[in-house]
Amino acid sequence: MTPPADMIDHPRPRFAPWLLEPMLRNRRIYLKVALAAAMINLFGLITSLFTMTVYDRVVPNNAYASLVALSIGLLIVVVFDFVLRILRAYFVDLAGADIDHDIGTRVFQRLVGIRLDLKRGSTGSLTGMMRELETLRDFFASATMTAMVDVPFVVVTLVFIAIIGGAVVWVPLAAIPVVIGAGWLTRPALDRLSAKSLSEGQSKQSVLVETVGALEMVKTSGAATLLGRRWSKANRAHSDSAMRQRLVSTIATTVAASANTLSYAGTVVAGVFLIADHQLTTGALVACSILSGRAVQPLAQVATLLTRLSATRTAYRQINTMMDQPTEGPQNEALKPARFAGRIELRGVEFRYPGAAEKTLDGLNLVIPAGQRIGLLGRVGSGKSTIARMILGLYPPQEGLVMIDGTDIRQFDPAYMRARIGTALQESVLLSGSVRENIVLDRPGIDDAEMLRAAELSGTHQFMGQLANGYDLILADRGEGLSGGQRQSIALARALAGSPPVVVFDEPTSAMDQQTEAALIDRLAAELEGRTFVLITHRPALLRLVERIVVIDAGRVVNDGPRDQVLQQLQRPRAVA
Ligand SMILES: Nc1ncnc2c1ncn2[C@@H]1O[C@H](COP(=O)(O)OP(=O)(O)OP(=O)(O)O)[C@@H](O)[C@H]1O
């Protein structure tokens, strides 16, 4: 069974493996579709033969016995035709659903593995692109696929017309280039318009996602006017190009439909002369006129297919651009070391955000021995959160190295590494679903007992334990329905669950009152003992948790030492002033 590998090696036209592989896997089903199509086309020929026989043999001779026999035969054909048509639709759907599922999984995996430094476009345009999967699915799972299977039978039908109708075959033959020409000529315009319509649809989606995601801000800050203007502009542009796209494809499909009618009528007209010339019987003419419609029809369907092909190709290109991008993690075998002690080292790290003019980290050197708890201090925008992102491998440095336990973190499996770093970043983003799901996140090894332990540590249990449905409380999108402090507490429970050897907290108490914060610090002090802890904060109380302080300014370390010593140095200039 070598042929499939061959086809993957030299695909023409070049299809990406994410599309080609699931299609090839379904080749058996498509073979069944082709078989069913062949039978259905054969039945079509039989029906026309039936008509011809009735006109030429039954009508002139009043041969009712033959008519009964022929009718029974035809009835059987109709029943088979019915069953085969249903089977054909079912098989196309079956293959379509499998391909859709496969591609959906692959694309989603790629989406979550996207490298943040290579990410292009807004959240809205990314979701818009995911929506384009529907366009691809519609193409593979719809009747359009069956139209392609019917195309080779056009030749069979034409040969059949030539056999029974002779010169009449020139009529459908003349109609075919018209149909193909209409499809071909409109294609460049359709390609252009569907690309335009797709990008404008994504702009529309961007405005929508931004508005819905920040509805409270939109209302309170009066952003509705600005967003409303953006929305109508995007909407107008999109409906304009969608209208043009429909217009052009209507031209192609209408030309095909008219060619179909002309082919039928032309056959009848030409047939009259041939009958007069005794070259054709009336029955053969009727059969030919039916068949000439059947010869052009698949091509008319292909014209429709071509109009959809533009949209499908645009969607394919969009998705393929994302699928072609390198994902996170090493290209070769990723490391998953059994021991993860948590010694962190940033050596000569230089980093500039994509598109930013200034470097955020400028030759930063920092070693955090395993088990040490450090606080990162520094002014707003000095680069503290960026250091956390470097440690988590969210962005690779342009220069220098980020290492954990002496290994460049780019060699680790990103999911493996991040599962060992408990992280609570500045924004406490929760997901829709229960509080339990938000803490456990389906991670292996985190059972109810561990979830409760983490919830007690973070302070979540204080408010969740008292509610009747407690941890099964269902949250709306992004944790709506809870206060900011409660959300933050759940995010901390999520980070602490599973006792990861490294913990990175960025402003973990920014939404909490002093009392809640003090109680949290008491509980965390014992919990973090012996673990590598990186704390980014502007709140002095939290510094009780750390033994060393590193001060960052403009992406460099400007002070580093034992906590109390650095705190004294930081207070001194103020005392002098
Ligand atoms: N995603 C991003 N894209 C481009 N620039 C960014 C991005 N995130 C941060 N920056 C820039 O990098 C610089 C440092 O940001 P960072 O978030 O690391 O600061 P910080 O020290 O954590 O500040 P804060 O105390 O306000 O949290 C800022 O000047 C900011 O403009």
UniProtKB/TrEMBL annotation:
The chain crosses the membrane at residues 29-51, 63-84, 139-163. GO terms for cellular component: plasma membrane. Residues 33-311 form the ABC transmembrane type-1 domain. PROSITE patterns: ABC_TM1F (PS50929), ABC_TRANSPORTER_2 (PS50893). It is found in: Cell membrane. It comes from the Bacteria. Residues 344-577 form the ABC transporter domain. Its main location: membrane. It is a multi-pass membrane protein. GO terms for molecular function: ABC-type oligopeptide transporter activity; ATP binding; ATP hydrolysis activity. It holds the Pfam family ABC_tran. InterPro entries: AAA+_ATPase (IPR003593), ABC1_TM_dom (IPR011527), ABC1_TM_sf (IPR036640), ABC_transporter-like_ATP-bd (IPR003439), ATPase_T1SS (IPR017750), P-loop_NTPase (IPR027417), Type_1_exporter (IPR039421). Keywords: ATP-binding, Cell membrane, Membrane, Nucleotide-binding, Transmembrane, Transmembrane helix, Transport. NCBIfam families: type_I_sec_LssB. This is ATP-binding cassette subfamily C protein LapB. It comes from Sphingomonas pseudosanguinis. The lineage of its organism: Bacteria, Pseudomonadati, Pseudomonadota, Alphaproteobacteria, Sphingomonadales.
